[in-house]
Structure formats: C-alpha cells, structure tokens
Amino acid sequence: MKKQYTYPFTAIVGQEQMKLALVLNIINPTLSGVLIRGEKGTAKSTAVRALADILPEIDVVGGIPFNLSPDEDSDVIKECFEVSGEVLSEERERLSVEKHKVRVVELPVGATEDRVVGTLDLEHALKAGEKRIEPGLLASAHRGILYVDEVNLLDDHVVDVLLDSAAMGVNTIEREGVSFAHPSRFTLVGTMNPEEGELRPQLLDRFGLCVQIDGIRDAEERVMVMERRFLFEENPEAFCRRWADESEKLVEKIDMARRLYPSVSVSRENLLAIANYCLEVGVDGHRGDIIIMKTAKTLAAYDGRTEVGRDDIDKAAMFALPHRIRRQPLQDIVMDVGSMLKNKTSNLES
Description:
Elements: H1 16-27, E1 34-38, H2 44-50, E2 57-61, H3 74-83, E3 97-101, E4 104-106, H4 113-117, E5 118-120, H5 122-128, E6 133-135, H6 137-140, E7 145-149, H7 156-168, E8 170-175, E9 178-183, E10 187-192, H8 201-204, E11 209-213, H9 219-234, H10 236-242, H11 244-260, H12 268-281, H13 287-302, H14 310-320, H15 333-349
C-alpha cells in the first residue's frame, strides 16, 4: 500500500498565531484546546492534520483500544480489558506497555452518537452475562487530540456528549440499563467558518484558546503558498524530506519546553495583572484567568525562560480572552479583540 504523506507543519506559510496556539497545546495539554476561526482555504485543517508528525510519544497499555496510561487505576485497566474480551494477567509486571505517538482523532460533523461514545454489545451481554464494548472516538482520543472540523455544525446531542466528557474526563456508554465508563481526557481542537454560524456558548467556553485567521494578503507569500503546494503534490516524499530538519528542530524545542514548564514561575504582581485583564474586559467566571496564567507560563517555557513576563501575559490574553468577553447580541468575537483588548493594553501602558 502506498504511503500517505501529510503536508509538513513547518512548511505552512504564515498563520503564525494559529501555529503557535496549536504548539502551546502540545506543550501543555491542560490549556484545553483551541478554536480556530477563519474563512475557507486558510490552512486550518492542514495545520491540525500536520500535528501528528510533531506530537510526542506516550506510554500506552497494549492489547486494548482505550489509550490507557500504565499509571491509570488498576481497576480501570482491568475493567477495560474485560469489556474488550481480553485477558489481563494478575501480575502487574506483565502488563504490556507500548510507545505510541499522541493521536489526532478526527470527529466527522455527521458522526452519530454511537460512533462518538461507543456501543454496548447487548446480545453478548444477554447471552454471556458479560459486558462487551465497541469503543467510540472518545476512547481513541483519550490522552490525545480530538479534532472537529466545522465544529459549529455539530448536532446538539453530540455537542452535549463532548461537553460532558470535557468536563468530567470520563465517557459513559449506556444502553438498556447496562453501563460502562472509561477515561476520556482529550485536547479539543475545532475549526470553523463564522459565516456558517456560531458555537453554543457552553462549547465555546470549553476551548482554552481562540484564534481568528484570514487569508494572506501579501502577494509574495501567496505565491509561496502555491509553489509549496505544487511541490508537495508533485513529489510528497521529497518535499517532506526537504522540511525534515525544520520539523525536527520544532520537535526538539517543544520537548524542551515540556520539560521546562514545571519550573516556570509567575510573580504575584503578574497574577494581579491577569486578574485585572479579566475584570476590565468583563470575563465571567475564573476559567479565563487560569487559562491566561497557564498560557503565559507555556509561552515562557517555549521561549526557554523560567519566569513569566508582562509580554507573555499580553500575548496569552490575546489567545484566551476573545471568546470569553461579554458581547452584545450579534456582536462578533473579532470586534472584541480589536477594541476591548487593545484599549486594555493601552491603559496598562499609560
């Protein structure tokens, strides 16, 4: 079978805010994902699918399709083996552990609830008196990235499932009084064209970061987009090999940032600056404050520093606040970024 090549992440022209937001979520999965808003044909899907090549490796329990960590609760691991119809040795030392790359699992807009959540084999349960599970996409996405293209077009019942799993870190499969729950902690990445409708507020708030992207307006860069795409389609293997060094450098920088992140500190003065940002622009709740703090720490780590500066906070606010600012009916998210956050920055500087 012919190998399928993915357009390299580092070969994408422009769209630096989008690429940075995605990299930050790789470094720190607790940022809770990113919503990428923009017009058609701006490399949104290309960038997300290219993530697979720069994601780190993790330890995964072998023999079952739930992407479990060897450090998960032993009862959870045992039950996941049972519902998969596999046998788990009593000796924990014999647990099969494999190295897998963090996965990017794509959730199609038209996916059914059973495809997302998973299903119970009711016939097997009635005949054998045992649970047997057909895992869904939420099992595959555990400890990985769940990617939803055109996330604003998802059916409401699928949105409800995502909200429950994102909030609890657990996916529950229920049918005819029989239920099974398994871990499902994932980074949610969504792309959308605002012209096709907005997101429900509950789902919008679940994205840690939000970026707005537009088509490139510089003629030279647009030519570069065409040239690189032509070269990739003509000879994808050679094109990917050409960008291998750049990709490797990015992987090394991300790996360094992941190791450095726990050592990054934030002064109380800067924590107060974060709180004031959120108060002045009218952010509800405390999730915005926490996400800004985490994003600022991640930015510092990515830059090789162990202390958060004011520039980190300003940049983090541009990622974390646009979709959390209170808006008037029919007011667009981008207008808020262009007005309220700029006003806030000028006030701080004065």
